[in-house]
Amino acid sequence: MANLAQLLASIKIPDLAGKAVLITGASTGIGAALARAFAAQDMKVGIHYNASREPAEALADEIRAAGATVHLVHGDVSKEGETERVVEETARTFGHLDGLVNNAGGMLGRKPTAEYTDEHYMKVMDLNARSVLAATRAAHPWLKKQGGFIINTTSIAARNGGGNGAVLYAASKGFVSTITRGHAKEFVPDRIRVNAVAPGVIATPFHERYTNDEQMELQRKTIPMGFVGTPEDCVGAYLFLASPTLSGYVTGQIIEVNGGQLMP
Question: What pLDDT score does 236 carry?
Answer without folding.
Answer: 97
